[in-house]
């Protein structure tokens, strides 16, 4: 794959955006330790970035189907890159300025997601997309694994404001590196182009043509809003209160990333006979994470459960992205992809906000039990939809 210059450019641009997206919260956390930001300020800034992301995703989906996907990536990267230094300028001076700049960065982040998904389908031939998607998710997982230590090391050499500006440089790379695609939007009257909601609704109708997509998106959203949120809140508490060490927290998170890395490498080559069912089984594996926290088991079981969860999530993600790029009408791919990011990413903060009060009200054990059941049951229910078997509405026509 990496011998192809267009793919290499696409991979580098997508990796730069993923690294910039991940790094900013970590760097701002360092700013809290340095007292450039308070914990409350950090919450406000990250909430503003999330709000910008959620606003931009559906708008970008429409724009990326109206115009060149490459142009949308360009403007998204430039918007995020130029707003990032303003975050650095506002730190310790104005929470309003910092939060506003973070919201603009979130807009750039949200705008590039559906455009990148659609651009992948333009640049990469269909028979190589699963391998390409695996390579891109592999880069994200490697970043998650090595970037905390690298960022901590860089913080000893440069002030936090410089590190924040460094994420802006990554966004500029996102804007400038990716290749041109082949998509040419069909011409339409200028008046028709102003009906944003009509075009967005067209994307909804396209999504409804693919029952497997709606079922899979529902399952993914349920898993993220419950299992992902619960384990994010409970794992630190269990590590501290049950095992009296932070090693279980660190081990669980590291195992999850290593499992995801293994999953990405494996799915790059594996072609299961029933791809949709295999992917949904992988998604259901996330249920082992809250289940392992429910009982006083040896820490090794917790770490193993997180590794299985990470493995499973990539066995779902890569075929899911590949099937969406294959099955959805090219002129509506960005809008359908925007629904994916809007629901799956958008409900993660909502889940985190609700899980903590639920644990306070009912206790950790009932909440974890419910989340584990949802993680197992939601993919199983999605698998009952006939087209979920292969992530395909109609079976492919066999050549004679």
Multimer state = single chain
Q: Structural class of the helices, strands and pairings?
A: mainly alpha
On the 0 to 100 scale, the average pLDDT is 87
How many structural domains does the protein architecture include?
2
Low-confidence stretches: 395-400
Main sheet makeup: none
Rg (CA only): 21 Å
Helix content: over 70%
Membrane topology: Multi-pass membrane protein
Main location: membrane
Keywords: Cell membrane, Membrane, Transmembrane, Transmembrane helix
InterPro entries: MFS, MFS_trans_sf
Q: What would you say this structure looks like, in words?
A:
With 400 residues, this protein is an all-alpha fold. The protein has two domains: 153 residues; 185 residues, Growth Hormone, Chain: A (Up-down Bundle), CATH 1.20.1250. 79% of the residues lie in helices and 0% in strands. The chain is built from 16 helices and no strands. The longest helix is centred in the middle third of the chain and has 31 residues. The two termini are 30 Å apart. It is found in: Cell membrane. This is MFS transporter. Keywords: Cell membrane, Membrane, Transmembrane, Transmembrane helix.
């Amino acid at each position: 794959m990496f011998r192809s210059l267009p793919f290499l450019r696409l991979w580098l641009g997508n990796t730069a955006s993923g690294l910039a997206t991940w790094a900013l919260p970590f760097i701002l956390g360092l700013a809290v330790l340095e007292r450039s930001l308070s914990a409350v300020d950090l919450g406000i800034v990250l909430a503003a970035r999330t709000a910008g992301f959620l606003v931009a995703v559906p708008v970008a989906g429409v724009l990326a189907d109206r115009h060149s996907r490459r142009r949308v990536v360009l403007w998204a990267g430039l918007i995020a890159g130029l707003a990032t230094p303003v975050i650095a300028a506002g730190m310790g001076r104005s929470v309003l300025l910092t939060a506003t700049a973070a919201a603009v960065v979130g807009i750039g982040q949200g705008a590039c997601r559906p455009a990148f998904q659609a651009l992948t389908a333009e640049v990469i031939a269909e028979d190589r997309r699963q391998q390409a998607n695996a390579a891109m998710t592999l880069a994200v997982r490697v970043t998650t694994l090595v970037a905390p230590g690298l960022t901590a090391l860089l913080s000893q050499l440069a002030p936090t404001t410089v590190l924040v500006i460094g994420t802006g440089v990554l966004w500029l790379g996102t804007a400038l590196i990716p290749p041109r695609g082949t998509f040419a939007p069909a011409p339409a009257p200028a008046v028709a182009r102003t009906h944003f909601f009509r075009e967005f609704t067209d994307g909804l109708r396209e999504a409804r043509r693919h029952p497997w997509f709606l079922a899979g998106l529902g399952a993914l959203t349920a898993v993220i809003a419950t299992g992902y949120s619960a384990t994010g809140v409970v794992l630190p508490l269990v590590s501290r209160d049950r095992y009296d060490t932070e090693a279980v927290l660190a081990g669980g998170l590291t195992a999850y990333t290593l499992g995801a890395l293994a999953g990405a490498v494996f799915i790059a080559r594996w072609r299961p006979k029933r791809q949709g069912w295999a992917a949904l089984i992988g998604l259901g594996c996330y249920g082992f994470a809250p289940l392992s926290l429910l009982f006083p088991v040896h820490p090794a079981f917790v770490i193993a459960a997180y590794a299985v969860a990470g493995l499973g999530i990539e066995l779902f993600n890569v075929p899911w992205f590949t099937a969406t790029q294959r099955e959805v009408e090219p002129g509506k791919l960005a809008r359908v992809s925007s629904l994916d990011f809007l629901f799956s990413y958008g409900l993660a903060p909502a889940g985190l906000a609700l899980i903590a009060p639920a644990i306070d009200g009912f206790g950790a054990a009932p909440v974890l039990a419910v989340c584990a059941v949802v993680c197992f049951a939601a993919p199983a229910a999605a698998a009952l939809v006939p087209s979920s078997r292969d992530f395909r509405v109609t079976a492919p026509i066999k050549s004679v």
